[in-house]
Amino acid sequence: GNSRYTAQEIIDASGVQVGDNLFLLNRGQISAQILQQLPYVGEVTPQRSLPSTLIFQVTEIAAAARIEVYQDPEPKAAQEDAGAEETEQAEEPEEGEESKTPADQPWLISVSGKLLEADKGNSAALTVTGLTLRDPQAGQMMDVPDSQRERLSTLTQLLSLLEESGELGNVSAVDLTHSTWVSLRYRGRFVAKLPLGRDMAHALEVLSAAAENIVLQWGDQAAGTIDLTVAQDLADAIFTPAEG
Q1: Read out DSSP for the chain?
Q2: What pLDDT is recorded for position 22?
Q3: Looking at the predicted structure, is the pLDDT value of residue 239 above 60?
Q4: Model pTM?
Q5: pLDDT tens, 22-53?
Q6: Is the peptide bond before 102 cis (omega within 30 degrees of 0)?
Q7: 242, 223 Cβ separation under 8 angstroms
Q8: CB count, 10 Å around CB of 9?
Q9: For 85-108, what is each residue's pLDDT tens digit?
């Protein structure tokens, strides 16, 4: 079922040569090499077919999201008393942090957060704001500053749930810059606010049902904000129509 890579490219990435002993081959290492060198391979299963054949069963993946170039804003400097001398020192960077270079261009990722390639500007994948990629390399998993780890976890959970529910195509943008909620551009005309630290799967179910009800009540051209951060039990979604 592969379409992006040829059979020969997969064989070359495996490192397996004609004449290698089938029983001595490390299939885990072979799989890891293929997954790293061919980023759009999501799964690969090497299978021995005796007496002398090795078969690679490959599943390719598509880009699920586009990580925009982003840097967290610098915190505001504390106001000092007039005439006071500056005594505070800059916070020391965490070990290894200073050697990691932030991405200077958007990158495409899979649902799991695997880096696929730098975006060439023609991807239809949803856009993500609020994560700073560091030392991005195709075939590797995303790396972000420690302060953004929870955001990254939220994103991968969200992408997985959207894919499972068949809603991935209904979200065009994700904003992770808020501390208590995540914002989605939903179905092209709604801005959805989902609370962090709550049942994300249930929140997406409520969002989908709310959008359907809004269309029934307001018509196909309904647009505005669907807010799930107000209700304590996620039972209600507050809809605010767009102005105009």
Answers
A1: ---SS-HHHHHHHHT--TT--TTT--HHHHHHHHHHHSTTEEEEEEEEETTTEEEEEEEE----EEE----PPPPPPPP--TTPPP-PPPPPPPTTGGGPPBPSS-EEE-TT-BEEEE--S---SEEEES---BS--TTSBP---GGGHHHHHHHHHHHHHHHHHT-GGGEEEEE---SSEEEEEETTTEEEEEETTS-HHHHHHHHHHHHHHHHHHH-TT--EEEE-SS-TTS---EEEEPP-
A2: 83
A3: yes
A4: 0.84
A5: 888 889 999 999 999 999 999 999 988 888 88
A6: no
A7: yes
A8: 15
A9: 443 444 455 555 568 899 999 999
- Residue 195's identity, in one-letter code, is P
Count, residues in the chain: 244
Which residue type does 178 have?
Answer: H
First to last CA, the chain: 48
Query: What are the structure tokens assigned to 230, written together?
Result: 């107000």
Express each pLDDT in 150-178 by its tens digit: 999 999 999 999 999 999 999 999 999 99
C-beta neighbour count of 121 within 10 angstroms: 8
124: tokens are: 């239809």
Nearest by Cα to 159 from 209, 108, 118: 108
Largest Cα separation within the chain, whole Å, is 85
Q: Sign of dihedral through CA atoms 132, 135, 139, 141? A: negative
Q: What would the two tokens of residue 90 be?
A: 């800059």
